[in-house]
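Sequence in, structure out.
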Amino acid sequence: MPVVAVIAGARRIGAEIVRGLASDGYDVGLTYNNSVTAALKLQREIVTLKRACQIVRCDVTVPSEIRDALTNLEDAMGFPDVVVYNAGVFPKATPPADIDEDDLLDAIRVNTIPVLTLARYYEMRCRELQRTGRVIILGSLGAREIWSDRAAYNTSKAAQHTLALSLARSLAPLMSINIVAPGQIVLEGEQESSSAIVSERRIPKQRHGSADDVVDAVRYFARCSEYITGQTIVVDGGYGLVR
């Protein structure tokens, strides 16, 4: 069976990615940081689908924990055909006068730097096993669009986007690295906020995106030709056509 490792897969979009790929026949390994209860519940759910599921705690700001998590998941399930990086933070809106250097660095430590750590370790395992691999990065429309008072987020996501493309070029042909960049996403059970960054009225599809919309894009990169690398699917309902 194919194996996928989802970094930060216990909650929200990460959990939906786990569910979607498990339903497609993948055995799933996922990491969590503080959400152990959610991870255990999701693990039980995936097992009922007759798919293997392993969970491992991982603080993505600690490089050794990323490497250890991937090692432990591989030991338990086998080499991951696909690795999805879903960890991220969305700092509160802060005017430039109030931004502390640590605010910016904290966002980069979660949203950006772990992509390099993950890719370097995964490349090493690909070479050792003489395998090819796929990495899918959950990016953001915020890598392309500047939002008011979101300097830490915009900077970290723009850097993540550039880093992913640089790695896609440098690590080919051994690995394919692609990006799924959601726009305004509202998950089932969550209320749409009146302060949404992108109003439904400005989106050609006249609605905010759902988890299923994001999962479909992840599915595509998980099973498409390995010749496709360094590409981005923007899941924004056509908002990029009118902004």
